[in-house]
Amino acid sequence: MNTYYADKKGYYGAYGGAFIPEMLYPNVEELKKNYISIMQEVSFQKEFQQLLKDYVGRPSPLFYAQRLSEKYQAKIYLKREDLNHTGAHKINNTIGQILLAKRLGKSRIIAETGAGQHGVATATVCALMGMECVVFMGEVDIARQAPNVARMKMLGAEVIPATSGSKTLKDATNEAIRDWINNPEDTFYIIGSVVGPHPYPDMVARFQSVISQEIRFQLKEHENTSKPDYIIACVGGGSNAAGAFFHYLDNKEVKLIAVEAAGKGIDSGESAATSQLGKDGIIHGSRTLLMQTDDGQITEPYSISAGLDYPGVGPQHAHLFKSGRARFLSATDDEAMQAGLELCQLEGIIPAIESAHALAALEKMTFKKEDIVVVNLSGRGDKDLNTYINYFNF
Amino acid sequence: MNRIVNKLNENKKLLSIYFTAGYPEPDSTVPILENLERSGVDMVEIGLPFSDPLADGPTIQQSSTQALKNGMTTKKLFAQLENIREKVSIPLLLMGYFNPILQFGVEEFCKKCAETGIDGLIIPDLPVEVYHNNYQKIFKKYNLVNVFLITPQTTEERIRYIDSISDGFIYMVSTASTTGAQGSFGNTQKEYFKRISRMQLKTPQIVGFGISNKETFELATRHAAGAIIGSAFVKFVGKNPPGKIGSFINSIH
Fold first, then answer.
1. Is residue A4 a part of any domain in this protein?
2. Most exposed: A34, A174, B42, B117, by fewest CB within 10 Å?
3. ipTM for the complex?
4. Which residue among A204, A234, A258 closes a domain?
């Protein structure tokens, strides 16, 4: 049992672990020793649940998408993470981690961000808790995600440009790790996805597992069963998918579909489909699948969606892929943009381009009419308006 | 006997130098090594460049990025070092991140090191426990010394554990930081150097991170077997031809 969850050393099959320099050992060890017991404290759970309800606006609705269902000939439900405060699932995790940081006596928060969603979610909870917040963001991403940079600054965060390497998400992550090495006493690193050294992948998945927990009882109300036939989620690092899959991992009747960003096509040289293009290796302290050269240098992925262009994938997802527990599909930029527009026009919802990749999988699958399909709508598309406008020439 | 172990038995304060292979020029590696030996350096760490060197400060990051742009790879480095033992006799270590070594194949990598005449490895993101359980046998088979890091935050219990499985030296990181010059050492560092010295470890310690000149070298080696200069030397070779290395080394000891 429980073979799809982290073992005590943070491994999922061959993947996971904590491949970190000794300088990070005390901090990671402190977290590893304490995260589960703190998360199980009654007072922690009370505060966490209260904030999820009153601040984030949970539970997020499970919406029966009638017109989408008619088109794809199945019962399609949308898990509306896009309706959360700050516009995506990211905040479930930042609330959890900042409560943990407080209980560990930390006073300063650092985070990495790619598109800026995790940075905004972190800056938000830091403002809420009155804690110092430093967000590392690649110089290239700062230039293309100006509104989110402004949001973080309004929320009181300091945004530090990552100018090393390719100046994007992986470099922002490197800079955050370096900052943590340089500030080992007072600083807590809030990682935004199910990546990084153990216990981060497990901890983030647990905070995001509120998604599958809610799907269970909401589906029961709608369909009188807690089990869908399919759950579909997009995967960059993989936190929204980890949350949507969590309570169903051991129930093989529920088919798990992970959708990666194929960019301009898997073989185009401009893609982020890690399960197809990656090899075993180590990135940001975790053994997993990652895109790299034959020499072991980590390469820069591409996707139209800034939230999916990470060269690795969380170690749990690498294991779900290798073991066959989850089926990995991919959607190109074009397929995702069309699927995003389709959701606007059929259901009146503008999805984040990340989530549009999950929607694009519907077209690639065949369903039975009575199949229950849950698509995790991980975020809203406001942040992507410019990309939509440029793509469709609105 | 391993050259590193022999060198440590000489009972002098060792000066060890780190530089990034393939920087500043693709074929800088061998001339730098020859000049280092000629200048009286005791030991050298040759850095394998990596795209994501997360324990390194700006200087070594930049040298790594440039080396990769210069086309440096693990295979090329072994090719450059093929006849190095005809030219250089001081102990040589390779220092790099684990992913490129994993892609090369750990056993194949160790075998190549042995054939080339490499004496030891420093792999900052290979955790002590993983080495101990999975790789120690392979390293020993090829007579390679594996060097572990300790920091001011490492607990006494863990230092004892690291000491117990170390067989060359322990790399004592001077401060909680990434690599790079600090200017000078304060009381916190001096206390830390003394604390470690009082532990009477079986494995000698060599101090690294933040050593950039004569003053920091002397302070660091007051209680330790030696010290490593990295970023300050990388900066120097970035601006000066290998022939000038002697003047840098003479300014230290």
1. no
2. A34
3. 0.95
4. A204
